[in-house]
Specification:
DUF397; DUF397 domain-containing protein; 4 strands
Length: about 60
Amino acid sequence: MIAEPSWVKSSYSGTDGDVCVEVACLPQAVRIRDSKRKDGPQLAIAPHTWEAFVAHVQVD
């Protein structure tokens, strides 16, 4: 059986729950989904792509 990945809610997600994004980091891909649609579509990107994205959007 394949274990479900650990999903983490974005710290930038809205506090009222209307715009929430979750991320699961796996060795082969980083998966991104809407937290309100757990059975909905997911975006999967390469880990190095995710690292570049995070480095670009981080605020000091």
